[in-house]
Structures are given as C-alpha cells and as structure tokens.
Amino acid sequence: MKRIKRKAVQYWQQPFFGIKHDFMELLPTTKLILTAIISSFAAIFQSAGGYMPGIGFFVSAMTTLPIFLATIVSVRHGFLSYFVTILLLLFIQPSELIIFSFTTGILGLVLGVSFYKSKTRFLVVFLAGAALFMGIITILFIFRFPVLGPGVGASFHFHSLLLVAIFSIPYAWIAAEACSFTLKRLAHTLPDRVIKPVSDQQELNHLKDGKENVEAKK
Questions:
Q1: pLDDT tier, 200 (very low <50, low <70, confident <90, very high otherwise)
Q2: Which residues of 170-188 are buried (b: 16+ CB within 10 A; e: fewer)?
Q3: 53-107 pLDDT, tens per residue?
Q4: Domains of the chain, with CATH numbers?
Q5: For 98, what's the count of Cα atoms within 13 Å in the CB-facing half-sphere?
Q6: Distance (Å, rounded) from C-alpha 34 to C-alpha 78?
Q7: Contact 104, 85 (CB under 8 A)
Q8: What is the predicted pLDDT for the residue at 119?
C-alpha cells in the first residue's frame, strides 16, 4: 500500500513531457503558416459536434490538441490560433463558437502555457481543470447553454458545481496526458534542431556549467 502511495506521489510530482519554446527553431513565416493550418484543424474538429451529432462530440474533444500545439510553438501563436479558430467557427459553425471559446480552446491554451511554466503534473492538471471549470460555469450560468447535457441544469446549485468540478479535473488530466503523448511522439519524429525536449536542454545546461567551472578553476 505504501509503495502504491509513493508511486502515486512521484507521478504527480514529476513534470509532463515538455519543450522549451526557445528551441522551436522555425522561421516566422513558417510559424504563421503552421498556425493557420493548426487553426483550420481546430475549427474542423470543433465543428464536427454540430455536423455529426454523437460521434462528432468525441471528434470535437480533439480541438484542444491543435491549440495546445500552437501554444507550444509560442504563446503568442497559441493566442493567435485561438482567435483565428473563433473567426473560422463564426462562419463554419457559429453554434460551436461559445463551446470552443470557454472549454476546448481555453483548455488548449492553458495546457500549452502550463507545460512550459509548471514543473509538476499536479499543477498542470489543477490549472487546466480550474480553467475548464470556470469556462463551463460561464457557459452554464451566464449563457444558459447546457454544455454538459440536460443532466446538468443551467440553474445555480451546489450540486451542479460539484458535477462540473468532478467532470473538469479528470477531463483535464486525460487531455494533458494526450497532449504530452503527442508532443513526445513529435519530439522523436522531428529533427532535434526543430524541437528539443526539456530534459535534453537541462542536460546541455548542466554540461555547459561543468565546463565553465573547470575553466574557472584553471
């Protein structure tokens, strides 16, 4: 039992797989083109919920990933992709615009930034879950839109808040793991000069510091 608890604590204290934004060695034009492509995919995924009821809702959940990847390229391009996707949805599927703005889209932004800033899984999931919680609450109680279905009413009750919280944290955790897995695959597929894992950069910094210490002693 203690062993399981120790592993659980270690799991939440370890960081997700991430990269340093400074090592995304892409030209500005390439980043803009990449942002446009990513935004198009995000809009297509999100609009699937309106065009294909049922399975489309599972496809729309994938919208978080493109926004996350754009934010990994740079935070500025992440916000740019977020707003471009909103504009595309305004013409393609306006009914999905509110859902994207306050749930899947904002979740991708928060995950991208927290992967860069945060050092533990717990903090990443907590921040992402909190952002998703606030987004769903906004849609439910301000816009009066039943984003979680008829089971969760638009009236302000503690019961509704509890259900949203129970939904938000596990969803954010699954989304974070999916984004981490995808980023890891990309890091192994793309050349090292394009994307460099955080662990590799930390190792380079350690070697550099070691060389500087040796030269200082001489």
A1: very low
A2: ebbbebbebbbeebeeebe
A3: 777 778 888 999 999 999 988 888 899 999 999 999 999 888 888 889 999 999 9
A4: 15-217 (1.10.1760)
A5: 12
A6: 11
A7: no
A8: 72
String of b and e for 5-29 (b: at least 16 CB within 10 Å)?
Answer: eeeeeeeeeeebbbbebebbebeee
Tokens standing for residue 90: 């305004």
Other Cβ atoms closer than 10 A to 83 = 12
pLDDT at 140 over 90: no
Adjacent-strand bridge partners of 197: 19
Q: How many CA atoms lie within 13 A of 145 on its CB side?
A: 14
| Token pair of 137 as six digits | 């609450």
Gap between the Cα atoms of 96 and 107, Å rounded: 15
Retrieve residue 33's tokens: 């083109």
Which of these, 113, 155, 148, lies nearest to 133 by C-alpha position? 148
Q: Is 208 exposed, middle or buried (0-12, 13-18, 19+ CB in 10 A)?
A: exposed
Q: Identify which of 171, 123, 167 has the alpha carbon closest to the alpha carbon of residue 16.
A: 123
Q: Which residues contact 186 (CB under 8 A, 6 or more apart)?
A: 69, 195
| pTM of the complete model | 0.79
Q: What is the mean pLDDT of residues 145-168?
A: 71
Q: Which residue has the tokens 């945060």?
A: 118
Residue with tokens 């992440």: 78
Q: CA-CA distance, 34 to 211, in Å (whole number)?
A: 38
d(CA 6, CA 22): 34
